[in-house]
Every structure is written in C-alpha cells, then in structure tokens.
C-alpha cells in the first residue's frame, strides 16, 4: 500500500480508460496487492503494516470514485477493468465485516449525510448488468462471481446500517435483479445475499407473493442443515449464525 498503489488508483479514477493504461505494474498493484490485503484480513495471525482505519483513510475516496465513475460505463468494461474493480469492491466488503466495525466502515462509503446514496447506486448499476449474471459460477472462481458476492455482501451491510430511505431505493431498483440472481445463480453465497436483502426490504406479504418464496424456504432449510452437520458449523464458509439470520429475515 505504497505510493505506486496510490498512483495507479489515481489513474483508474479517470473515465474512458485506454487499454494501454492496464500495464503489468498497474494490474500487480491493483489486483494482486489488493487481493493480498483482503486475504490478510482473514488471517488472524497475519502481521500487516496498516490497520483497516488507515487503509480506508488513505484510499476509500479513490475506491469510491473509481467505482462511481466506471459504473456508468459497465457495458463497455474490459476484462482488465473488471478484475480491478472486482478486487477493490471485494476489499471494501471485507473491511465492513472485519473486527466488528460494520456500521463505521459502511458509513465511510455510504455516509448518513449522503441522501443520494451515490455509492449504493453505483453498485446497483453494476449488478444490473445482465451479462455478468450469465458468468456466475458455482465456486468463487472468476471475477463475475467474486464481484457479485462482494457487492451483495456490502449491500446486506447497508440494509443493516442505513435508514428507511435507502431501503426504499433498494425496493425500486433491486427487487427484479435480486429475484433473477436468486433464481439463476449457481453460487450459494450469492443466493443467500439476494434472499437476505429481499427479506429486509420487503414486508412479509410481498415476500410470500414472490415466485421464489418456496425456493427461499427450501434453500435455507437445506443450507442450515448442511452447516449444522459440519464440524465447523459452517456451509461453504458461511457461519451458521449468518444463515440463521437470513432464515429469520425471510
């Protein structure tokens, strides 16, 4: 997380990037270094030079601006830009679930004073890009799968920390997308995220009227049973506490 990292983030803030921008050095710093930081958050014995607060203090504005600017042109993303934004959003989502700082770190990207919810709207534009849906795999194995997993993880955090007006934005902009993703995705964590958000933003009667309502019940029952039988009380790296939270929301 050095001066070159900041330099390449600044480059990515520009709209209409040419392919020549995506040099091996840029991809190393933005993709590989960001991934390394992300992984280190889950290694309890890992010694890292920066705290989460320091990372967000130095780079959160860059992350937000990169995602906001390029969300408007998601239909034209190159593979290189996709992989860069995927790893940035994945790190953002991880910081919001690290060390019990969900509310504080979500507020960095969705401050209570920002009633336009620019960052949330940028994420909604990205998940609304249908060609990405077709590329989601059953494992955390490609950029599209990692991207959707991270975005829905972050948006779940938003539903738990933001006010009613933000949830109304979700209702108007996300319901159709979430239903589609939940019906078609092969990755359980993405399905869980979609169900989780629907369980928050919809009242019980509307939730039951969805054509995926029965699927939701079966999904949660099966996945909670798998987690209960597993020695670590997890299913596909999802703790049973989160699964039960999603179950009670639906």
Keywords:
250 residues, mainly alpha, two-stranded antiparallel ribbon, globular, disordered C terminus
If you had to describe this structure to a student in words, what would you say it looks like?
It is a single chain. This protein has 250 residues and is an all-alpha fold. The chain has one domain. 70% of the residues lie in helices and 2% in strands. It is built from 13 helices and 2 strands. It has helices at residues 3-12, 24-41, 52-71, 79-95, 102-109, 118-127, 130-133, 143-161, 164-184, 188-201, 204-209, 213-229, 240-249; strands at 234-235, 238-239. It has a two-stranded antiparallel sheet with strand order 1-2. Strand 1 (234-235) and strand 2 (238-239) form a beta hairpin. Helix 2 packs parallel to helix 4. It starts with a helix and ends with a helix. 36% of the residues are buried.
| Amino-to-carboxy terminus distance | 41 Å
What is the tally of beta strands?
2
Q: Sheet with the most strands?
A: 2 strands, antiparallel
Low-confidence stretches: 236-244, 246-250
- Residue share in β-strands: under 5%
Total domains, how many?
Answer: 1
SSE pattern: HHHHHHHHHHHHEEH
Determine the structural class based on helices, strands and strand pairing.
mainly alpha
* Count of runs of 4 or more consecutive helical residues: 13
- Biggest sheet strand order reads 1-2
Mean pLDDT: 83
Helical content class: 55-70%
Q: What is the radius of gyration computed over CA atoms, rounded to a whole number of angstroms? A: 18 Å
Q: Give the overall shape, derived from the CA principal axes.
A: globular
